[in-house]
Amino acid sequence: MTRGIDRDLKRFNEIIRGKIRKDLKQYVNHGEMLGRKGREMVSIPVPSIDIPHFVHGDKGSGGAAQGDGEVGQPLGPGQDPNGQGQAGGDPGSHVREVEVSIAELADMLGEELELPRIEPKGQDSIASRKDRYKTVSRHGPNSLRHFKRTYKEALKRQVASGIYNASDPVIVPTKEDERFRSWKTEYQPQANAAILYLMDVSGSMTDDQKTVVRAESFWIDAWLQRQYDGVQRRYIVHDAVAHEVDEDTFYRVKESGGTRISSAYQKAIQVITRDFPVADWNLYIFQFSDGDNWGEDSKECQRLLVEQLLPICNLFCYGQVESPYGSGDYLRELQKLTDEHENLVLSEIPNQEAIYESIKTFLGKGR
After folding, report:
1. More exposed terminus of the chain, fewer Cβ within 10 Å: N or C?
2. What top-level class would CATH report for the domain 191-363?
3. What letters, b where the CB count within 10 A reaches 16 and e where it falls short, cover 115-147?
4. What is the rounded (10 degree) CA torsion for 304, 305, 308, 309?
5. In the chain, domain spans
6. What pLDDT shows up at residue 134?
């Protein structure tokens, strides 16, 4: 039977999850939990839950609307009409941090944004073999002998035959009592995804724009990890020249100079060719920029997109973050390609408040 305390705990957890779900858009847009991210869990600040209780007034103070009063008179003890308060001894309001798995957050995001499930390509129809020791056999090598199961079998035999002596419990297993760990071959479908993040780090990209990119990338990662067994990430930064970097450098690098977006596309093609055979991997590219690009480089970008990147990607998502220094022209160049390429998705991200809708725009097609 389920204990009452277990039911109460389950109900309490449902209330906590309900509050997280209610404020999910706030967490997505402002990323309160990103600084508290662990490997599988994140800590989210949740306002304390008020438990209904009686509050007793001062003795002899009367009931509601009883007694004389004047305009501006304090209604409770400790309230100074002149605003000169004293140090108090009462507890204040507190915020509770609860741990939630990244997978659970991704499921909440999918439900709130009504994101469709992704249908993987490539190796999703190929099964990989894995041998797991999860069964017990009567035969096997001594190195795999299951001592606990062997002991139980010997004990059951002695009890059943009446030779078990509770006052002198000597258990001697026989050959028939021996049990061994055995494996079972399981076939698991493979569906791998590679995510390439491209970001402009030229002089016009400020820390505010990078904060937007970081928050959006967190939620994109969370959702795609719920869709695939294996997710690999690569990070590329560029100004006039592109470089492959690690995740920490991707969000912290500070550079200056001009912008050649085509350099990032060329680097992405090199990474895909080196690490991710197109037939075996589901490829996702997320590019973030303020829309500046050098001279005639946009024509070269369009060529690389149409001829090499768009034909092999599940999704190519371009997010243009608004910058006080960026022109925003590159988005207009990409809009010329959207009618012929359904896997090219564009999003304008003027500020952090737009992250929520941008994620829906990127992932809403379920590709």
Report:
1. N
2. alpha beta
3. beebebbbbeeeeeeeeeeeeeeeebeeeeebe
4. 130
5. 8-48+95-114, 127-187, 191-363
6. 75
